[in-house]
From TrEMBL:
This is Glyoxal oxidase. Residues 68-441 form the Glyoxal oxidase N-terminal domain. The keyword Signal applies. Keywords: Signal. The lineage of its organism: Eukaryota, Fungi, Dikarya, Basidiomycota, Agaricomycotina. It comes from the Eukaryota. Residues 1-18 form the signal peptide. It comes from Ganoderma sinense ZZ0214-1. PANTHER family: GLYOXAL OXIDASE, SECRETED PROTEIN-RELATED. Transmembrane segments: none annotated. Residues 446-547 form the Galactose oxidase-like Early set domain.
C-alpha cells in the first residue's frame, strides 16, 4: 500500500504539468456570502436540514430584535440569510448539543449583562432550549428559557458538553464568575441535562488540570465511557461507575485547552470494532505562567498527538506528528469521506482578550493561518497532513470563530472577535462576514439519497432509494456511508461531532442503497444524525434522520 502510493504520486504530478491546457479539475474554494451574520457567530450548531443557530455574547451587535441588539440568530443555509433570535440569558462562551429527542440545549455562559441592553439575564446557569423546528425558514421557532425553574446545578462559564449514550448531555467544568485568562474561579465538576442526581459530581481530573482547563475536549466513546483532555492531561471517565482512568499526558509540554487552545477530534469509527482513536492538534508548548509574561508572538505548536483507546494503544501512548504550521485555536472537523479538515486559528499567541502585554489590537493571538489543511487518518505517519489544492482565505478566524459541516456537505465558517464587545476600528476587528468552504464535489454531479425513513432503529438493515450520476457507477468504485453528528462549535472545539461508518451495498440496478445502522447508542448516541453517501470522494447532500426512537432523554433506544 505504502509502496504503490509513493510510486503513483510523481506520475500524477508529471501528467498534470505535461497537459497545461486540460480543463482544471474542481478545487476546494472559499465563497463569501452576501449577507453577514449580524452577530459575531462565536458558537454555531446545525439544528435542522436548513438552519444553523449562532450565539454571541450579549453585546452591541448590529442585528436587532425587540428594540435591542440580538445575541442569537438563525442562519438559513438555503438562502444565506440571518434572522435574529430573542435570547434572555447571556450565551457568551457557552456550549451545547442536540438531545435524543432532537431538541437543542445550550448551556452555561456569561454571568454579566451589558450596558445599554437591560434585557439580559446572567447566563452562567442557563439552559436554553430550541425545540425541533419543522419550518425550513425557522418561522415560528424560538428559544425557550425559564431561568427560575430551568437551570444548571452549578454556575458554568466556559463549560463543555456532549450527548452521551442515553441521549442526555454530560456537562463538564467551567468557571463561576471570574474569567481572567486562566481558570481562577473553577467549577471542577460534572453534571447532566436532564439531571441524573441532585448534586454535581466532583472531578479530580479537572482539579489536576488547572489552571488551563476551560472547554475540556471530551468525546463519548463507543463503550459509553467518555474520553477527556484538558491542559496537557487526559483520562477516560466511566459515567456509570463514576471513576476515572488516567491516561498519558500530551507529550512535550503541549497544552490544548482554553486559554491555550488546541483542538481535538474523535476519528471516524468503523464496523465491526469501532476502535476509538483521538487526535489532538495545536495549542502551545508552554508552562502556565502569569499572562503578563506571555506574548501574542509566542509561537503556537504544530504538534498533533494521536492515541488509540485500546489497552495496547494506551500502553503505546501518544504518537506525535506535525501540521504544516503552528496553530493556536484551530478547529478539527470531520469530512464525510473520513478525512479531517483543519481550519481557523493563528500561528502565535493565545485565546482570550488583551491579557498579554503586547496584544495586536485587543487580540492575544496573531498571524492568522489562512490556508486550511486536510488530515487523512489512514495514511502512514508523517504523510497524513496536506494543504495541496487548498484555497487561501483573506479573513482571519482567531478567537471567537466557528465552523461547522452543513447538511449540504460544505463548511460554514463565521465569527472572530478577540475584542470586548463589538469593535470595528482595531486590527482583528469584530467579524460579521460569513464564508463557506466548498469541497471540489459541489461542482460535480453528486449522488443523491432520494428519501429515508424519519427514524432509524439501532442494529437494523435499511434500504433507501438513491440516484447515482453515471460516472460514479463503474466497477470498483469506493463506497462510504457516514452517519454523522455535525457537532456544536465553540472555542475551537466541535463537541459531540461524530462520524460512524456503516457497512453498505448498492443494488445491482444502482437504484438503492442498503446500510446497517450502529449496534446501539454507545456507538452513536441516540438523536439527530445526517447520512452522507460518498462514492470515489464525491459526497451526496446529507439526509437528516433521527437515529433511535426520538424519545426524550434518558433513553436506551
Ligand atoms: C427603542 O429604544 C430606544 C433607545 O433605547 C428608545 O428611545 C425607544 O423609545 C425604544 N422604542 C420602543 C418601541 O420601545
Ligand atoms: C504536563 O504538565 C505538568 C504540569 O506543568 C508537567 O509537570 C508535566 O511534565 C507535563 N507533561 C508532559 C508530558 O510534558
Ligand atoms: C495567503 O494570503 C495572505 C494574505 O493575502 C498572504 O500573505 C499569504 O502569503 C497567502 N498564502 C498562500 C499560501 O498563498
Ligand atoms: C477598540 O479597541 C481599541 C484598542 O483596545 C480601543 O482603543 C477602542 O476604544 C475600542 N473601540 C471600541 C468602540 O470599543
Ligand atoms: C426533549 O427533552 C428535553 C429535556 O428533557 C426537554 O426540555 C424538551 O422539551 C424535549 N423536547 C421534545 C420535543 O420533547
Amino acid at each position: 500500500m505504502k509502496w504503490s502510493l509513493l510510486s503513483l504520486l510523481p506520475l500524477f504530478v508529471s501528467f498534470a504539468s505535461a497537459a497545461p491546457s486540460a480543463p482544471e479539475a474542481p478545487k476546494w474554494e472559499f465563497n463569501l456570502k452576501k449577507e453577514t451574520s449580524g452577530i459575531v457567530a462565536l458558537e454555531s450548531i446545525v439544528v435542522s436540514p436548513t438552519l444553523v443557530v449562532f450565539f454571541d455574547r450579549a453585546s452591541n451587535d448590529p442585528l436587532q430584535i425587540n428594540n435591542h441588539s440580538a445575541w442569537g440568530a438563525l442562519w438559513n443555509l438555503e438562502t444565506s440569510t440571518v434572522t435574529p433570535l430573542d435570547v434572555l440569558t447571556n450565551s457568551f462562551c457557552a456550549s451545547g448539543a442536540l438531545l435524543s429527542n432532537g431538541t437543542m440545549a445550550s448551556v452555561g455562559g456569561d454571568p454579566r449583562g451589558f450596558v445599554g441592553n437591560p434585557a439580559i439575564q446572567p447566563g452562567n446557569q442557563a439552559i436554553r432550549i430550541f425545540e425541533p423546528c419543522a419550518s425550513p425558514t425557522g418561522a415560528g421557532c424560538t428559544l425557550f428559557e425559564d431561568p427560575a425553574t430551568l437551570h444548571l446545578l452549578a454556575k458554568r462559564w466556559y463549560p463543555s458538553s456532549i450527548r452521551i449514550f442515553d441521549g442526555s448531555l454530560l456537562i463538564v467544568g467551567g468557571t463561576h464568575v471570574n474569567a481572567n485568562f486562566y481558570n481562577v474561579d473553577p467549577e471542577n465538576s460534572f453534571e447532566f441535562f436532564p439531571p441524573k442526581e441532585s448534586t454535581v459530581r466532583p472531578s479530580a481530573f479537572l482539579e489536576r488540570s488547572l489552571p488551563a482547563n476551560l472547554f475540556p475536549r471530551i468525546f463519548a466513546l463507543p463503550d459509553g465511557k467518555v474520553f477527556m483532555v484538558a491542559n496537557n492531561q487526559s483520562i477516560i471517565y466511566d459515567i456509570e461507575a463514576n471513576t476515572e482512568t488516567i491516561l498519558p499526558d500530551i507529550p512535550n509540554n503541549v497544552r490544548v485547552t482554553n486559554p491555550i487552545d488546541g483542538s481535538a477530534i474523535l476519528l471516524p469509527l468503523s464496523p465491526p470494532d469501532y476502535t476509538p482513536e483521538v487526535l489532538v492538534c495545536g495549542g502551545t508548548q508552554t508552562d502556565p505562567i502569569d499572562p503578563s509574561l506571555l506574548s501574542s508572538q509566542t509561537p503556537a505548536t504544530s504538534q498533533c498527538s494521536r492515541i488509540m483507546l485500546t489497552p495496547e494503544g494506551i500502553a503505546k501512548g501518544w504518537q506525535v506528528e506535525h501540521m504544516l504550521e503552528g496553530r493556536t485555536m484551530p478547529e478539527l472537523v470531520h469530512i464525510p469521506n473520513g478525512q479531517v479538515l483543519i481550519t481557523n486559528g493563528g500561528g502565535s499567541g493565545f485565546a482570550a482578550i488583551s491579557q498579554v502585554p503586547d496584544p495586536v489590537g485587543n487580540s492575544n493571538a496573531d498571524h492568522p493561518v489562512l490556508v486550511p489543511s486536510i488530515y487523512t487518518p489512514d495514511l502512514p505517519l508523517g504523510r497524513r497532513i496536506s494543504n495541496a489544492g487548498m484555497p487561501n482565505s483573506t479573513i482571519a478566524r482567531l478567537y471567537h470563530s466557528s465552523v461547522t459541516l452543513t447538511p449540504q456537505g460544505n463548511f460554514l465558517i463565521a465569527g472572530n472577535n478577540p475584542n470586548g464587545d463589538v469593535n470595528l476600528t482595531v486590527p482583528f476587528s469584530s467579524e460579521f462576514r460569513v464564508q463557506t468552504l466548498d469541497p471540489p464535489f459541489v461542482q460535480l454531479n453528486r449522488p443523491t439519497i432520494l428519501s429515508t425513513p424519519k427514524n432509524l432503529k439501532f442494529n437494523s438493515r435499511v434500504t433507501v432509494p438513491i440516484d447515482l450520476p453515471l460516472e460514479l457507477t463503474g466497477p470498483g468504485a469506493k463506497l462510504q456511508v457516514a452517519l454523522m453528528d455535525l457537532g456544536f462549535s465553540s472555542h475551537a472545539f466541535h463537541s459531540s461531532a461524530r462520524l460512524v461508518f456503516m457497512d453498505a451495498t448498492i443494488s445491482a440496478n444502482r437504484k438503492s442503497l442498503t446500510f446497517v445502522t450502529p449496534p446501539n447508542g454507545r456507538v452513536f448516541p441516540p438523536g439527530p444524525a445526517t447520512i452522507f453517501l460518498t462514492i470515489n470522494d464525491v459526497t451526496s447532500p446529507g439526509a437528516w434522520v433521527m437515529m433511535g426512537s426520538g424519545n426524550s432523554p434518558p433513553t436506551l433506544e
